[in-house]
Amino acid sequence: MNGRPVRKMRKAVGKAWPWVIFAGVAALWAYSLPHADFIFGRKAGENLGSFLVEMASVLPPMFLLVGLFEIWVPRKVIERYAGSRSGMWAVPWMILLATVQAGPLYVAFPVAIGLWRKGCAPRNVFIYLGTFSAMKIPMLTFEVAFLGWRFSLARTLISIPVFIVLAVVMERLLPADFLPPGLVEQGGSDIESSFLKEGKTLHVF
Amino acid sequence: MISLWIITGIALLVSLAADRRKTQAAVFKGLKMFVGVLPLLLGVLAAVSLVLTAVTPRMLEGILSGTGLLPFFSALGVGSIALIPGFIAYPLAAVLRQNGATVPVLAAFITSLMMVGVLTLPLEARYFGWRAALLRNGLALCGAVIVASGMAWVLR
Predict the structure, then answer these.
(1) What ipTM was assigned to the predicted interfaces of this complex?
(2) Mind listing the pLDDT tens digit for each residue in A80-115?
(3) pLDDT higher for B3 or B85?
(4) How many CB atoms are closer than 10 A to CB A53?
């Protein structure tokens, strides 16, 4: 056996599995339509449907904002307020940025990569991810309604210092020259240059 | 959600008024990222919805109620399966509390639900790489233990 077909197959599997699972759930749901007693299929389909609605209502504007952010916000600004020399004042900025947003954590990944690309220190990126996951304001109101303000307040106040420490540990554990792959992949300035190559110099990049 | 669309719309209009070509570049960039991650995202969401259907609230009640360390670590384990949004996590947690789950168990469950996700790892790894994704999830699991212990101490 030589290695190439194996690698080719692995790549094909890597590309195909999301579609296979998606089609599988869709098939289960479709099968449950004429078979009313097949509750598992119907519920799985409904769960997937609610996830898709949630994704469609948050992700497109989020990606547009990330695109605008990448084009318009000067690297200097992010470096100054959240870069590796920004100090403690970056923390409230990251928390503020994260808590006003809504949506599941995967919405925050592209934003985090966008911040990283503009010179945000890794620890601040992970503070952003931590606070995004566990203390968004829209979610907190929800939490208070279901679990009470004592639970919510205690969890939030305990979480903030824990997340900050974890983010600093995370930055220490990653190699100093670590570059997330999403950064490399999104990073090509090919799109901008194809749009903006003639004559204009762009100071923002 | 609506406010997000309004803010995005205003930002787009302002950007368009300032520079058409840059706006075009920004929109293309955003769309390219969105389309690029869409297949993986659909697969992960489908997998999460399968697991969420298989694991019923009644099963969780059985595992997570009671006292001692076993429900605590079960909560961490179950919570780590996927990144579950709060609109599912909180109603579930309220039901669990009515059925006798303790505060540290609930805190462990909620924190690990929102911060640790094994099923969502492929998605995270696409952005941050496997090494950083695994590291973040591992540390977040430790964080969930610390937060839950702190909750147990504060809300005795």
Answers:
(1) 0.88
(2) 888 888 888 899 999 988 888 877 888 899 999 999
(3) B3
(4) 11
A153-158 long-range contacts (CB < 8 A, ≥24 apart) are A154/B150, A154/B151, A154/B154, A154/B155, A155/B107, A155/B110, A155/B111, A155/B147, A155/B151, A158/B146, A158/B147, A158/B150, A158/B151, A158/B154
Minimal CA separation from A133 to chain B, in Å: 6
Question: Taking the domains of chain A in order of start, what are their residue ranges?
Answer: 1-57, 73-205
Cβ within 8 Å, pair A133-B114: yes
Residues of B in Cβ contact (< 8 Å) with A19: 39, 42-43
Q: B57-64 vs B69-79: helix axis angle to the nearest 10?
A: 140
Nearest residue on chain B to A123, judged by CA atoms?
B136
Contact between chains at A22 and B46 (C-beta distance less than 8 A): yes
Give the number of domains in chain B.
1
Question: How far apart are the C-alpha atoms of A110 and B45, rounded to whole Å?
Answer: 17
pLDDT in tens, B35-45: 999 999 999 99
Residues of the domain holding B136? 55-154
User: Is residue B24 in some structural domain?
Assistant: no
Q: pTM score, two decimals?
A: 0.85
Domain presence at residue B117? yes
Torsion angle of the four alpha carbons A149, B138, A109, B55, in this order, in degrees rounded to the nearest 10: -70
Q: Is the pLDDT of residue A64 over 90?
A: yes
Report how far residue B64's alpha carbon sits from residue B79's, in angstroms, rounded to the nearest whole number: 11
Is residue B3 included in any domain, yes or no?
A: no
Average pLDDT on B118-147 reads 93
Residue B73: inside a domain: yes
B39 close contact with A: CB closer than 8 A: yes
